[in-house]
Amino acid sequence: MPVSAGCKLSFKEESPRLIIRNYLKKHGFGNRLIKEKLTAEIRVSVVIPTYNETGVITRCLQALNEQSSHAFEVIVVDNGSKDDTLRKIKSFARYVHYPLYVIEEPSAGVAIARKRGMDEVLQRLLERDEGFKHVLVATDADTIPPKSWIEGIIREFGNFNGIGGLAGTHGASKEVEKKIYEATGIKNYFNIIPSLIEFFEEKGIGQIKMSGPNSAFAATAYALGGGIRHEIDSNGRPKLSEVNNLGNEIKRYGYNIIPMRCRVIKIRRRELFDIVNNCDDSYFPNGFSPEGRFNVIREDEAELLDFACRNVSLKKWKHYRYKMIYKVLRNFVFQPLASGQAAEDKIREIFTAEEINFFLSASFSYFDFPNNRYADRILENLLLRLEEVLQL
Question: CATH number for the domain including 14?
């Protein structure tokens, strides 16, 4: 049975082999595709689900090739790509300095693909004699990790004493931010989001959330938490919170989820598509099959950015940014406050009474109308103050 946060973990950590064996038995995993042994030198396994990622996958693999630590392997789980993704990965494999494996998962869904890669690692870990202090890392094909990423993950876990996972952030590249600034005069257009999250984490405000582009799990905690789950919403579409949901489950067993303190770059093709097309949900646009094979936006980031900078009005740029910030603050800070999971006194040190009332009472319908001057005024003043605090 799950136990309350803060309890001692010794009874779990003393039997990691049993935990992993029971997990694999319960989930029916057996036919392993990676035959190579998981050696003691490999301390981290990076799992990357792919679906039609021919335009971005080699940038991710090259960034991993430049890591300062070599104590890792990479497992790409392809979910039925129809383009050149598999050929590109296999061609690139000859140039990498790390073990790179490619497996195929025919069942549709990013969560299913992530789970298959993680389970592949656990199966090999069970056969390893050197112990179970191993890290499972979740990221996406359209991310570019910094050179110290793997080294930082290993350092943060340390001796694994009570740490179940790391929650990292993701931002836009310097080139993307520079071009948006030149077109709109807005600095840190996308990167305000990870900066805010990191600031609130440092202040101990809000609820740490894990995400697919940049998260890591201790192998034993992953298995004890039941692994990644493929969940469906009321509309029959796959939920996109499988990594964070697992993090919440792991916390119920007494493990800590802590900030990763290392941001990855993520290609902003989906957000730019939303801005160009004035839409809110390009994960599941009209006409998209609900089978759940990832986000469907595959346009080139540079082309979308160039078009947006030439054609989107400043008013629309601001409106979309306000929506992003509103949703992040609402989910990260104010929903935990409303449910009693966040300290009100700390929040009042940063937010005014009017702002707190706005976030607790407003709904997303505030942003259905671009001319909502009250919402724009609240967020504009809040941003000016927070950007000064963050020194952005």
Answer: 3.90.550.10
